[in-house]
């Protein structure tokens, strides 16, 4: 996407490399993965992309859950079941062992990189143990699956913080946790989100066409109307 934006600016002869100007790029948490952060870093792009824990690290939001409850509580269609978190499992990195909340020793399945490329150790409990455990309903998302052939028990993974090398995600966390990062990302709410509100007011709540090309064209038409309206309302101010 960032490459395409740069190419558009080149085609329109606005700028040869728009990112060299230091223009600020923001994106929501859905884009916060290691390859994207690496791309921003290596291409020297002035980007701010928060991870999904950035509010938890911000002391200003410390009382947010108390006042308003968890965001997930408000999601009517959320079927995700919360289970005993991995923090309640006792992992000992010195001898690479792990004990579940019921005190059973777990098997180390493998050591390797997780989806974000971070060195992680994976454990699982034996199905025969979990099957008879009184906590199975709160420990496993799908406790019925334990009765299937070749089933495995609860699985958990841990990152060895001491061994792990700094990642591009860490680099972005520092940026987003800085005063400047918080200011920039806070500003994004009032710049980007109203566009989606405006488009849905124009009727774009679902696409009426199917297929990537048709959907892209339908979206472009909405964008065209949105931009014409912006020019009509604010063109003189901008000029
Ligand atoms: S379900 Fe399995 S992993 Fe979870 S507490 Fe029980 S025995 Fe331990």
Task: Explain the overall architecture.
Helix content is 42%, strand content 12%. The protein has 239 residues and is of the alpha+beta class. The longest helix is centred in the last third of the chain and has 27 residues, at 212-238. The chain is elongated, with a radius of gyration of 24 Å. The mean pLDDT is 87. It binds iron/sulfur cluster. It comes from hydrothermal vent metagenome. It holds the Pfam family DDE_Tnp_1_6. This is Mobile element protein. Residues 100-231 form the Transposase DDE domain.
Ligands in the model, by name, code or SMILES, are:
iron/sulfur cluster
Largest sheet: 3 strands, antiparallel
Strand line-up in the sheet with most strands: 5-6-7
Unreliable spans? none
Mean pLDDT: 87
Helicity level: 40-55%
- End-to-end distance: 28 Å
Question: Pairing-aware structural class of the strands and helices?
Answer: alpha+beta
Helical stretch count? 11
Q: Element order, helices and strands?
A: HEHEHHHEEEEHHEHHHH
Number of strands: 7
Gyration radius from CA atoms, angstroms? 24 Å
Name the shape in a single word.
elongated
**Total domain count:** 2
* Binned strand content: 5-15%
Domain Transposase DDE: 100-231
InterPro entries: Tnp_DDE_dom (IPR025668)
Pfam family, one: DDE_Tnp_1_6
Organism: hydrothermal vent metagenome
């Amino acid at each position: 996407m960032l490459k395409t934006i740069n190419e558009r600016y080149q085609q329109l002869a606005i700028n040869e490399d728009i990112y060299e100007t230091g223009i600020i790029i923001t994106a929501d948490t859905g884009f916060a993965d290691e390859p994207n952060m690496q791309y921003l870093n290596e291409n020297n792009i002035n980007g701010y992309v928060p991870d999904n824990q950035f509010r938890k690290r911000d002391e200003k939001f410390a009382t947010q859950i108390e006042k308003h409850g968890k965001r997930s509580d408000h999601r009517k269609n959320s079927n995700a079941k919360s289970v005993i978190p991995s923090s309640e499992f006792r992992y000992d990195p010195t001898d690479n062992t792990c004990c579940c909340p019921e005190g059973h020793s777990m098997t180390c399945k493998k050591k390797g990189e997780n989806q974000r490329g971070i060195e992680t150790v994976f454990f699982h409990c034996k199905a025969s143990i979990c099957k008879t455990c009184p906590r199975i309903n709160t420990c496993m998302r799908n406790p019925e699956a334990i009765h299937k052939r070749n089933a495995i028990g609860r699985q958990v993974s841990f990152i060895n913080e001491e061994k792990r090398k700094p990642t591009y995600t860490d680099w972005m966390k520092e940026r987003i946790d800085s005063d400047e990062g918080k200011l920039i990302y806070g500003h994004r709410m009032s710049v980007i989100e109203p566009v989606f509100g405006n488009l849905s007011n124009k009727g774009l709540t679902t696409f009426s066409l199917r297929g990537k090309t048709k959907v892209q064209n339908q979206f472009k038409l909405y964008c065209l109307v949105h931009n014409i309206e912006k020019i009509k309302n604010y063109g003189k101010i901008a000029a």
